[in-house]
Design goal:
The complex is a heterodimer of chains A (74) and B (458).
Chain A (H helix, E strand, L loop, with lengths): L14 E4 L4 E6 L6 E8 L10 E5 L3 E4 L10
Chain B lengths: L11 E2 L4 E2 L2 H4 L1 H12 L4 E5 L8 E7 L2 E7 L5 E5 L14 E3 L2 E3 L6 E3 L4 E3 L23 E5 L2 E5 L7 H5 L3 H8 L9 E3 L4 E5 L4 H7 L10 H6 L18 E7 L4 E7 L14 H16 L7 E8 L3 E4 L5 E9 L2 E11 L4 H14 L5 H15 L11 E2 L11 E3 L2 E3 L2 E4 H4 L4 H15 L8 H10 L1
Antiparallel strand pairs in B: 1-2, 2-21, 3-12, 4-5, 4-7, 5-6, 8-9, 9-10, 11-12, 13-20, 14-20, 15-16, 15-24, 16-17, 17-18, 18-19, 19-20, 22-23
Helix pairs in contact in B: 2-11
Classes of the chains: A mainly beta (74), B alpha+beta (458).
Chain lengths: 74, 458
């Protein structure tokens, strides 16, 4: 396996770590393999982002948090 | 009559009834008409029944351009150029579907279904948050009109509103969009859209559907086979024996059609006898239609053309075709079939079988037509062939205005074909309008009716 995260397979509720160190939770997935709609849970660089919903670019996702409940099983 | 270097006045010479072959085969003229005709005309994009829910989309075309017909999250209908504002990649590569966003697969720019640019990769990091995303929405058409479910769009903000563009031709479009029983706006698209490419200029089919009754000999084999819904001829048109058969051309608009006018108090004729359920359904519809106070109740639709590239066939089969220009020598045809949305399933199934037996790439009648267009185009491309214009002299000077029969009036220039059999009035109307578009600098030069109305008011 390549180890690359396939964002098409991520379900609503999954928690993700971004390259910036921020943690987000998916609120919807258009399943285009490029974008996710997510809410910031924390953001060390910019704490004001907490609670903000934004589109997250696939290349920014570095890890699916183990505690994420919603990740689709292969 | 040469068009070396492009269009020039005189290629369409309606005083003598001659049209140069250059307008069909000259690649410079083709390039010019993309701007002069297709970037300024109202073009058919699709039908609202194809996008019933928020997020639904249908990838369509306007001239050579790919466009997206879609319904946004609050239900509004849009038509966008299908091209990313960053590097031009198509942002929608499916024929139809449902989407939250349209994402460009090249660099990942992403657009909401209302056209807003909502996703720019590395917006904070690479653009430093400085890109004004409001400047880079999907390009939206200048004007859009939803008429009885059909969606029409125009790139030119100076064009008149769609219904003004349509003018008196509206009643003939209504023959497709209203119900068989006369209720307004009952049509839905039946099945998918048939798409195929034919090796001829788009004006060959546009001319044919303008009302070429002269070529009926081409379809003799279909008549002999009996492809019609009751296994006889091409259509069930028993009432035509009592009707007036007409050409109607709307001057200044470039729209024209064949139509039939029934006499007063005409009794519906049997049709669709191969299926008792379908026959009963249409008998009921015809009776209802005659009961409703509608000026169209005495009209029977037949092939016609809305300028520049939309062909209508209101009945048997009931369809719109779009002649998308692909090159001077190629046309991509999209054919939409229609049916009353609340018709019984058995009726829809029966009609679907009949429609595709008649029209489309495998349709028996459309194959006859394509054979003519394809070979006519190929035989007109050579340097010798181009020297000899086509003749459109048939019936010149024999159309009448203020036509009336048995208490029924029609607008435009009318030729009674009941005895004449054929005329080329509709083709002259088409090419007159085409030449006007090719020569006009702006829509201000193309709305003679407004000038005439203003003068009449004075």
């Amino acid at each position: 396996m390549s180890g690359v995260i396939n964002v098409r397979d991520l379900a609503v509720g999954a928690r993700l770590m971004l390259a910036s160190g921020a943690e987000v939770e998916i609120v919807s997935n258009p399943r285009d393999g490029v974008w996710l709609f997510a809410r910031y849970l924390s953001s060390p660089d910019d704490p004001a982002l907490a609670g903000v919903e934004e589109m997250i670019f696939a290349q920014d996702v570095v890890q699916v948090r183990p505690c994420g409940e919603g990740q689709r099983q292969p | 009559m040469h068009g070396a270097g492009g269009y020039q006045p005189g290629l369409v010479d309606l005083a003598s009834g001659l049209v140069s072959r250059e307008i069909f085969v000259n690649e410079d003229i083709y390039a010019q008409e993309q701007q002069q005709v297709f970037a300024r005309s109202w073009l058919f994009v699709g039908h609202e029944s194809q996008i019933p829910n928020p997020g639904d989309f249908f990838a369509s075309r306007m001239g050579e351009e790919s466009v997206i017909l879609c319904r946004d999250r609050v239900g509004a209908v849009h038509v966008f150029l299908n091209s990313c504002r960053h590097r031009g990649m198509k942002v929608c590569r499916y024929d139809d579907g449902n989407a939250t966003v349209f994402t460009c697969p090249y660099h990942g720019w992403s657009y909401a279904t209302d056209g807003a640019l909502v996703g720019v990769p590395f917006f904070r990091e690479a653009y430093h948050g400085e890109l004004d995303r409001t400047k880079y929405r999907l390009v939206e058409v200048a004007q859009l009109c939803s008429y009885k479910g059909t969606v029409w769009a125009n790139w030119d903000a100076a064009a008149p509103p769609f219904l003004e563009y349509l003018g008196e031709f509206r009643r003939f479009l209504d023959l497709i969009l209203d119900g068989w029983d006369g209720r307004e706006a009952q049509a839905e698209v039946l099945g998918g859209v048939q798409k195929w490419i034919i090796p001829c200029n788009w004006k060959f089919p546009a001319e044919n559907f303008s009302g070429d009754t002269y070529h009926n000999i081409s379809h003799r084999s279909v008549d002999l086979v009996g492809a019609g819904p009751s296994g006889r001829s091409r259509r069930d048109y028993g009432e035509l024996q009592a009707s007036r058969r007409l050409h109607v051309a709307i001057p200044d608009r470039g729209h024209q059609t064949i139509t039939y006018v029934l006499p007063k108090d005409h009794v519906p004729q049997p049709a669709y006898q191969n299926s008792p359920e379908v026959a009963e359904y249409f008998r009921h519809c015809e009776e209802e239609r005659r009961r409703r106070p509608n000026p169209n109740s005495r009209l029977i639709g037949a092939p016609g053309e809305i300028f520049p590239n939309v062909a209508l066939l209101p009945r048997q089969p009931r369809t719109l075709a779009v002649w998308h220009p692909k090159s001077a020598h190629e046309t991509e045809v999209w054919r939409f079939f229609f049916v009353d949305r609340d018709a019984p399933r058995a009726v829809k199934n029966f009609l679907r079988d009949y429609y595709i037996r008649y029209s489309g790439p495998a349709g028996m009648t459309e194959q006859d037509d394509m054979e003519n267009w394809n070979y006519a185009h190929a035989a007109s491309r050579g340097v010798i062939a181009r020297r000899y214009p086509y003749t459109y002299e048939m019936g010149m000077g024999h159309a009448v205005e203020n036509w009336e029969w048995d208490g029924y009036q029609l607008p435009g220039r009318v030729v009674d074909l009941t005895k004449a059999q054929a005329s080329e009035e509709p083709m002259r109307n088409l090419y007159r309008r085409w030449a006007q578009f090719m020569e006009a600098e702006s829509w201000g030069d193309l709305m003679a009716w407004r000038r005439n109305n203003a003068q009449a008011a004075e």
